[in-house]
Amino acid sequence: MKPTISFEFFPPKTQKGADNLIARIKNDFMPLNPSYVSMTFGAGGSTQNLTKDTILRMKAETPLKVVSHLTCVGMDKDQIKTLLDEYNELGIHDILALRGDPPNGGIDFTPPENGFTYAAELVCFIKTNYPHMNVGVAGFPEGHPATPNRLVELDNLKKKVDCGADYICTQLFFDNRDFYDFRERCELAGIKVPIKAGIMPVVSKSNMERIAELSLGARIPAGLIRAMNRAATDDAAERVGIHWATHQSLDLLENNVSGIHFYTLNKSRATLEIFRFLGIEEAGGI
């Protein structure tokens, strides 16, 4: 099977931001013919409503398969079921089921009353009530800070797969050796679902530091740090990040990756450049 190529976006905070994102998806990403696009889910209030509306617009206004992230944060079981019922009725049958990050940062997570504590519980709920839905889950090649060790973490991942998860999408990483080690450990643990690699191009020095925070401490290889430090301008730093992500992608494709999931940060230039360097005009050309 050909590897899947997918793009991830985060929810806009305003209606104008949503309009701009939809336009960018149509103009820049849709011509690349991705396997699917995904949207992270804003927790709480107006952000949650705008996120849902944007996801529904992506579904209605493009021919793309849309994957909605769904977390255990900010919604109880009844609210999650109401949302899934709406998605199901409108033809959104693809979910990335996550525990989600605590709303105030940190590691400790307190679930809502009558809510889910773990992603595995959410996966079981979806697969029990909506068995036709395709459900992905998160994997962490470099470990998750809330998990005491890799063995416990792999056991947690196995529980999600045993509950019916159809594939794993990894947190971003910058050293492919971390991904290959993770993939081998999954295989040894009896996890046989496809594992898609998460790639995010660094576009500036400050962006590199911010990514490390957002990704729960992704390791920045010394080679990437040296190359970014040598970059004299913002454009040069962006080229370093694009070339690094391109080489990662080429190596992954040569080593039979099941899919590559690009974290776009809602920007198109870096991803389009990676595709150009890969020598392909669309995801289906891989």
**CATH class placement:** Alpha Beta
Beta content comes to 15-25%
Q: Strand order across the biggest sheet?
A: 1-2-3-4-5-6-7-8
Structural class: alpha/beta
| Major beta-sheet overview | 8 strands, parallel, barrel
Radius of gyration: 18 Å
Report, as a whole number of angstroms, the end-to-end distance. Answer: 11 Å
The CATH architecture would be: Alpha-Beta Barrel
Query: Any idea how many domains?
Result: 1
Low-confidence stretches: none
What is the third-level CATH name, the topology? TIM Barrel
Multimeric state of these chains? single chain
Number of helices: 10
Helical content band: 40-55%
Characterize the overall form: globular
> Quick check: average pLDDT?
90
Number of strands: 8
User: How are helices and strands ordered from N to C?
Assistant: EHEHEHEHEHEHEHHHEH
